[in-house]
Every structure is written in structure tokens, then in C-alpha cells.
Amino acid sequence: MTANAPAIETRNLRKEYKGRAVVQDLDLTVQQGEVFGFLGPNGAGKSTTVKMLLGLVRPTSGELRVLGGSPDDLSVRARLGFLPEQFRFQTWMTGAEFLKFHGQLAGLSASELTKRIPAVLERVGLAGRGNEALSGYSKGMLQRAGLAGAILARPRLVFLDEPTSALDPVGRVEVREIIQELRREGVTVFLNSHLLSEVEQVSDRVAFVKAGEVVRAGTLAELLAGALPVRVKVDRLTPQLLSALGALGQLESQSEQQVTVTVSGEEVIPAIASAIFASGAQLYALTPRQHDLEDLFLELVGQNGDTGQAAQLGGKVA
């Protein structure tokens, strides 16, 4: 793989089942060493896309390259790590036996496994638990074991499908730290998660997919730029003040003492404060509210009945 080649590149990628397209015209570019969030509602084609990128499912048409080659190439597959959402592990094994088995499948030598297994168990918060049977692990511990398996062979590209779904808040923080460590090591992380606040904290770029197509992609700064709602609370909203604020942005949600002014960006906020003081009103609160990924999710894919699901994803509709 050349130094500047993308870690993932697809062009017009398409997958049909019984004549129905679940992924269509999918164009993605994921650079080396970045954390890339892949977001969308259930049925959007995310899991099918990941399976094609891993070589588990063949596309109907289109092109894809992973680490500069084909996922059918064993030398490429050896550099991939994968934590599936629906993990099914050999529960009769101990944690260490599970990792040894998967390490052998990945081609690691006995000496490498002797060093790596304790290291990755400690890294995912399972230090000292390797001799316990997986059947006695909690769901959160099983997810940690799966993450250990995904990073065991020092992959260059890791696919994480809902990596924190079974974890408590402490576990989620630990997984975020692992993802950030992987980034610092130059590992590319392809992250699929319904916990949008988690994705927002670790991703360099994200793509929103709906009905098998990418509807928006970019850096967080690019995607979240734009209109900024600012909530203003004063002792009294006079016609003079409302007129001045209306000249700065769009007025919404008005009451006797409060109004929301949607402006083009944070550079307008000082002008709002100046207009309030010039009117003689007493300022109680001036609160800008930046859009986040949950807002954008609802805007882009939370339509046609998807808003109810967005609530289940940790969205603003509850």
C-alpha cells in the first residue's frame, strides 16, 4: 500500500438481493489513519457495506479497494480487524484460548501470541480475566473480548460495529481512549455506531447513509457549520428590540422575555448583545446552541418514519 493511497475507496458500489438494491452508487473515501464514522438508520445498508469491504459479501457491481488492494487478497485480510455487532464467540473457551485461536487464524506465531494476548487483554480492561471461560463473561466483557480480538494482530484498518453498545459509561470512555490510541498509531478506524455522541467525540470525518446511498459526508466542522440558534432572555422584549434582532437573523420561539434568533454564525453574537444594550433592556441570558450530529442525523435521515428509531439511537426525539 502506497503512503498516500486511501485506506478505503469505493466507486458506484452496489449490492442487490433478489433484485432489490440495499447499497447503491456508494462512493466512499477513507484516508489512512483517520477515524471515520458511518452513520444511518437500520436498513440503510451499513452492515452490507462493511461486509463487502471485509470480503464477506461480493458486490453486484462497482469498485472497491481496501488498503490499496482487494479484500479477497489474503495479504489484505491479514491487516484487517473486525468487531461485529452481533458477536457469537466460542463460549466454552477461556478468554485467552479465544484470542489464541483467532490469533492463529491471523497467522501470529506462538511467541507473538504469548506477548500479545496479555497485552490486549489489559488494553481492553480484561487484565487477569483471560483464564475465565467466556460463558461466565457478561455481555460487556464479551464485547471487550471481541475488541481485543479485533486489534490482536496489529491491523492497519479496524472495523468496529457498535463497539460500545453493551458497555457502561466507564467502558465507553475506555473504548474512546482505545480508538484515539489506534489513531495515534496510524491505524484507520471505520466506526459504525448508533451512539452519535460517541461518534462525534472521536471521528475525524463522518458519512450519513440512507437507503444505501451517502447523503452527506465531510469533517465535523464542515457538516456542523451553518445556521446558529441563539436563545435570548431579557427583562422585556420591546418592539424596538425585536426589530433590531430581526435585522440580525430569523426570530423564532418568542415569549414575553425570550426569543430565539437564528443567525449565520457565532460572529453575529456580539451584535446581538449590542442591540440588547442599545434598547435599554436588561440581559439575563445569551445562549448559542451549536448543532450536533444528532440534529444532523434527524435532518438528513430522520424522516419518513425514522424519527422514532432516532429516539432509540440516543437522538433528540424521545
Characterize the overall form: elongated
CATH H-level name of the largest domain... which superfamily? P-loop containing nucleotide triphosphate hydrolases
Strand fraction: 25-35%
Low-confidence spans: pLDDT under 50, at least 5 residues?
304-318
Q: Please report the first level of CATH classification, the CATH class of the largest domain.
A: Alpha Beta
Distance between the termini: 45 Å
Give a quick account of the main beta sheet: strands, pairing sense, barrel closure.
6 strands, mixed
Number of discrete helical segments: 12
User: What's the SSE pattern?
Assistant: EEEHEHEHHHEHEHEEHEHEEHEHH
The tally of strands reads 13
- What is the C-alpha radius of gyration, as a whole number of Å? 24 Å
Broad structural category: alpha/beta
Indicate how many domains the architecture comprises: 2
Fraction of residues in helix: 25-40%
Spatial ordering of strands, largest sheet: 5-6-7-3-8-9
CATH architecture label name of the largest domain: 3-Layer(aba) Sandwich
Can you give the mean pLDDT? 87
The third-level CATH topology of the largest domain is Rossmann fold
